[in-house]
Amino acid sequence: MEDPTVKKSLITLGTKTSFFLLIGISFALISCGRVQQADVLSAPSAKQAIATIGPASDSSVTGIATFTQNGDQITLTIEIQGASPGIHAVHIHESGDCSAPDGTSTGGHWNPTGVAHGKWGVGEFHLGDIGNITVGEDGTGSIELTTDLWEIGTGSDVDVVGRGIVVHAGADDFTSQPSGAAGARVGCGAIVLSE
User: Domain locations in the chain?
Assistant: First the structure.
């Protein structure tokens, strides 16, 4: 016959063990939740850079260019207004200096890879060869591009910060060297890191 005191001791021991096991598991779950919450709170927010586009060459072109980083992808959205209806090339130029009335202070197309001018995503192209914006009768137009070829605020050769966004009077033909025969610079904005 079993000793009732042994059975009672085992039950007490089992209850105490279960209690401490339950406390340990609860603590582990709470700690894990805090770590996950801390990871989320300390995760860096998306980097962003902007360029406020102002008129050049006596035009009335204005607009905004926004670069937003999500992981290793950067999405550029450009919206312009005050442009003549039709197709206008838009490029990233070497410098964000828009001080010259005709926008020439921005230098040539941004081309850190040293390749020929072309069409974005087809063969060789400058990292500044964004493309063409179609402007409607109301003078507005937009373009969006997503890439992993640029960086924001790193100081590297492929960092867009410090460069210039230039809107041209005409379309980029994607073949004429070195700039696509896009014509005068009618809009200009310096790309700056957004706080």
Answer: 1-43, 48-193
Going from the C-alpha of 73 to that of each of 22, 25, 103, the distances in angstroms are: 44, 40, 29
Q: Say which CATH architecture domain 48-193 belongs to.
A: Sandwich (2.60)
Residues marked active site are found at 91, 93, 109, 117, 126, 129, 168, 185
Q: Compute the distance between CA of residue 85 and CA of residue 185 in angstroms, rounded to an integer.
A: 16
The pTM of this model reads 0.76
* pLDDT tens, N- to C-terminus, the chain (195 residues): 555 544 444 444 454 545 454 455 554 545 554 444 444 444 456 899 999 999 999 999 999 999 999 999 999 999 999 999 999 999 999 999 999 999 999 999 999 999 888 888 888 888 988 999 999 999 999 999 999 999 999 999 999 999 999 999 999 989 888 877 899 999 999 999 997
